[in-house]
Specification:
Order of helices and strands: EHHEEEHEHEE
Oligomer: single chain
Radius of gyration: 15 Å
Distance between the termini: 21 Å
CATH topology: Aminopeptidase
CATH superfamily: Gcn5-related N-acetyltransferase (GNAT)
Number of strands: 7
Number of domains: 1
């Protein structure tokens, strides 16, 4: 598993499904939930070099995304999200992607990471727990997690 930063230009091509020979996108990529952040990135002139969206690749094939919701705030906290196409789930890729994303964030100076997932999304809860995050609280439909970096 590798994480590849997505530039605004690449985000535009992904949204438009303008795949080139060297892109190697799975036919199911991008998954539906990834389109909103990709559209937002595609509208920017430039992206943060670290706290941006990343393509999750398995053996060079794009199968999902990992992304930060921006740079760390004044306390050093960064929020992130992730997802995989259905056929890539259940093999530990999401856990590997989160672990690598948090390593990148820590190396760039982030001190804490937060994420949330739907209360009924047991696989995502397991990914966050395996990645060292701990539950901080719940709402009616979400579970919130945090981890010091």
């Amino acid at each position: 598993m590798t994480l590849e930063p997505i530039t605004p230009e690449l985000a535009r091509r992904i949204v438009e499904r303008d795949e080139r020979d060297s892109d190697h996108w799975h036919p199911e990529y991008p998954f539906a939930d990834e389109l909103v952040p990709l559209r937002m990135l595609s509208g920017q002139d430039a992206a943060d070099a670290v706290f941006t969206l990343y393509m999750i690749r398995e053996e060079d094939l794009a199968v999902g995304g990992f992304g930060f919701f921006g740079p760390p705030d004044e306390s050093g906290t960064v929020e992130f999200g992730y997802g995989l196409i259905p056929s890539a789930r259940g093999r530990g890729l999401a856990t590997d992607a989160v672990t690598e994303g948090l390593r990148i964030a820590a190396a760039a100076g982030a001190r804490r990471a937060i994420a949330d997932t739907d209360l009924d999304n047991a696989p995502s809860i397991r990914v966050l727990e395996k990645s060292g995050l701990v539950e901080t609280h719940r709402s009616a439909d979400k579970v919130f997690f945090a981890r010091a970096l």
